[in-house]
Specification:
Cobalt-precorrin-4 Transmethylase, domain 1, 3 domains, 11 helices
Length: about 350
């Protein structure tokens, strides 16, 4: 990752755009959605930029940017559509402490502006580090179709409610409350109505229910990681990984699969080939008895493995609930396809263990 993604607080900060043509206007249309102070330096600004200045959206200077103009600016966009002029502006801006973006010059820029899906305050930034802007735009279009406008409304209401929700214990109780609001209660209430009052009332009722709810018992989910390709995970396996408080995984598991875990989750590798399984079993039992939602993430299909049976027996001895989410057997990883008329390979079917 060459460009580290962050969300920079620019409220009341100064941003400068040098240039008055289409490249400058493209940046300005995005900046108009923010709460920044905007200055534009351009000898021949477009009519739309002049109208924006007349409307008070920006301060327009009918000249080129000069030394001293970038003092106090956080960001400077060089959008003159002239390489020499942009290089000169960038030199001035950097000398005066600003971060610089030169339009269509990835290597000459200090930062890049990603493709953005705006459901304020929900904002999704998509970047390809300049490798494939067309791909970033395609992902943006796909997300815009998938995400209803009500997501922004739910987030605004939720933000105002966070101080009240602090009555819940941090961690799992808080996550369960917000998950139910965003994915179950809220969407149905505001669908088609954009009714913030209804969403606030629903949050009050939901909070009361969660404050009275008993803590969820800990459990262990045995999840098959298959041959290590995230695309071969089942939908249920992905859901288990996303929701886990603790992830206990085999050594050598694919980093691409571990990347799916929550950043806040406890993630620990164990050696499945160690002479004794007592250490692994003790780790699972400890976290489950503390109320955590634990995943035992294994290579291949955990229902194929004798060690899974031993670990389950240890959990049952402590009264801990468990489930199994099968994965693709590593032995069948070399089955990638075939040709017409070829006899298909026979895949053995294994019984799926059931939770107690």
């Amino acid at each position: 990752m060459q460009h580290f993604p962050i969300f920079l607080n620019l409220k009341s900060q100064l941003i400068i755009v040098s240039g008055g043509g289409e490249a400058a206007l493209a940046k300005l249309r995005l900046l108009f959605k923010t709460e920044v102070e905007i200055k534009v330096f351009a000898l021949h600004p477009s009519l739309e930029i002049r109208h924006a200045a007349a409307a008070g959206q920006l301060a327009l200077h009918l000249r080129a940017l000069a030394k001293g103009d970038a003092t106090g600016a956080r960001l400077v966009y060089c959008a003159n559509e002239d390489a020499d002029e942009d290089a000169q502006v960038a030199e001035i801006a950097r000398a005066e402490g600003a971060l610089v973006n030169i339009v269509d010059d990835l290597h000459g820029s200090d930062f890049i502006t990603p493709a953005i899906v705006d459901r304020s305050p929900v904002t999704i930034a998509i970047g390809t580090e300049g490798a494939a802007p067309v791909l970033a735009r395609a992902i943006k279009a796909d997300l815009e179709e998938r995400l209803p406008s009500a997501i922004g409304l739910l987030a605004r209401v939720g933000k105002r409610f966070r101080s009240k929700a602090a009555q819940l214990s941090p961690g799992r109780p808080s996550r369960d409350f917000w998950s139910e609001y965003y994915f179950k209660e809220g969407p149905g209430l505001v669908a088609g109505s954009q009714n913030e009052a209804a969403a606030e009332q629903a949050l009050e009722r939901l909070l009361e229910r969660h404050l009275q709810r008993k803590p969820r018992e800990g459990r262990v989910a045995f999840v098959g990681a298959g041959p290590g390709d995230p695309d071969l995970l089942t939908i249920r396996a992905r859901k288990e990984i996303h929701e886990a408080d603790v992830v206990i995984h085999d050594h050598g598991l694919s980093p691409e699969i571990l990347e799916l875990c929550r950043r806040e989750a406890i993630i620990r590798a164990v050696d499945r080939h160690a002479p004794t399984a007592v250490g692994r079993e003790a780790i699972l039992i400890k976290h489950a008895l503390e109320g955590a939602q634990v995943i035992r993430l294994k290579h291949g299909d955990p229902s194929d493995l004798e060690e899974t049976v031993r670990e389950i027996a240890a959990l049952e001895s402590q009264g801990i609930n468990w489930t199994i989410t099968p994965g693709i057997s590593v032995a069948s990883d070399n089955i990638a396809g075939g040709t017409i008329g070829q006899t298909p390979p026979v895949l053995r079917a294994e019984p799926i263990l059931r939770s107690a």
